[in-house]
Amino acid sequence: MKFYGNDVATLSPRRLRPAFIDDPQMASFLEALPDGAALLEIDGTIKLVNTKLEVLLNLAKSAMVGTALGKHVKTAGPVMQKLAASLQQLKRIEVSGVLNSQRSVVASVSILRTSDGGAYGALLTMRESARATKAPGSEGFRFESELPLTEVAQYVETERLGDLLRRASKAIDRGSPVLLTGDSGTGKTEFARHLSLRSEADSTPFVHVNCGMLSAENFDIEMFGIEPGSELDASTRGKLGYVEAADGGILFLDQISDLPHSAQMKLVALLETQTFSRAGSSQRRRIRIRLVAATNEDLNALVEAGKFRKDLFYRISVVNIPLPTLAGDRELLDLLIERHLQRINQGRSPALKLSSGFRDRLLAHPYPGNMRELVNIIDNAAAAADDVALPEHFCVPLEGATSAGANPGAVEAASGAFMARSFKDLVHEFETWVLEKSIAENGSKRSAAKALGIDVATLVRKTKRIQ
Ligand SMILES: Nc1ncnc2c1ncn2[C@@H]1O[C@H](COP(=O)(O)OP(=O)(O)OP(=O)(O)O)[C@@H](O)[C@H]1O
């Protein structure tokens, strides 16, 4: 009989009991869970959803209940595809990945079974994650979840950016490296993240490495990890390197021109062989990574000057994607202003409006800091204005810091003493003053970088020069 019972369960899957789903205690149980959660039939139909899941997926309950999990793959992204596939096979799964909303999540599907083993439903859970629970804790690794939700911009895609994205994802899908070039703040990092979502490649993982934070000494350990139990392994658990963490996905090498020379050579070997050894082990491991590199330097000039290896340059610059400056792209500027305003107003009452005077200033500004600068200017105005941003709320990061009397260079300039100094020294002194002041005022390098509208890796690199 039992055998028969199991057989019936296989032929005609059991279902969640309606009384179970309709019981208000069940809904309150789901609400009490610390994660986003949904109760599913084993055919994937969503029966109950808690509020946390609605927020994570940015989908209303009414849009989910009664529909198939697989229907939401487009909205949510490949994470959902994996969950739906594992449910079809009645397998438990835990996956991490990035939703289309750019939130990094850990999600699971657990099969609910009766005591005789028959599956009658499934529980889906999802929570926002530090993507690298499996990756090393190091300053050079930017955990996706370190970006607070409010800081993750909705990606704005102009026709030009769309073309570039298509070109780059084709290259990635062919297995070719992609080099993103463009001034600071032109959106290279954001572009790389979107590339990982669009590419046919498995979009998880996406490992973002700030090369400016890798030294020649720590390169092997950070990139290749430590073999568990080897003499280098203090913890006995080993350490996962960036390369291994990126296996099957994208390794994003940001500010690649900052890689130490010896490390450049090791990177060439990695790209040529697609193999590596963990520190403390001689065993070669094969990996499949897609490389996206970014720089705001002129790599050609660095090669000429002997500061960047030619062989690495040729390896990474197969497909070059130049990102436009904001000042040179009016469509991008208009779209960014509207989207950023919408985003700010989502949690704001009364909503912020831009006066025509403020808007004129936004349109006329040259944006040396590109998109990052625009975001800062609007955020500053949102903090200063009540409901209308007026021209006096237009404040450019650093503009205030250059007023006479505020910094040593300005004091010397006023007294004429600066004439005796080289331009380079004066600029260096001013930069040192700005960086130190900002770090002291903001409490950390990361917050200082944000306040100054520069990348944290750039700030770290510049402060290294000061020491
Ligand atoms: N297409 C986009 N739509 C909306 N916001 C964007 C877009 N691209 C970039 N941003 C925002 O602009 C800012 C700068 O982007 P990002 O960090 O990607 O620039 P970057 O070129 O990598 O800078 P750096 O060279 O200094 O590292 C970020 O706040 C980012 O969220």
Automatic annotation (TrEMBL):
Gene Ontology terms for molecular function:
ATP binding
Q: Which GO terms describe its biological process?
A: regulation of DNA-templated transcription
Q: Looking at the record's lineage, which domain of life comes first?
A: Bacteria
Question: CDD domains in the record, alphabetically?
Answer: AAA
Specify the Sigma-54 factor interaction domain's residue ranges.
154-383
InterPro entries per the record?
A: AAA+_ATPase, AAA_lid_NorR, Homeodomain-like_sf, P-loop_NTPase, Sigma_54_int, Sigma_54_int_dom_ATP-bd_1, Sigma_54_int_dom_CS
* Gene3D superfamilies membership: 1.10.8.60, Homeodomain-like (1.10.10.60), P-loop containing nucleotide triphosphate hydrolases (3.40.50.300), PAS domain (3.30.450.20)
- Which UniProt keyword terms apply here? ATP-binding, Nucleotide-binding, Transcription, Transcription regulation
Respond yes or no to whether keyword Repeat is given for this record: no
* PANTHER family associated with the record: TRANSCRIPTIONAL REGULATORY PROTEIN
Q: What is this protein called?
A: Sigma-54 factor interaction domain-containing protein
Organism field: Rhizobium altiplani
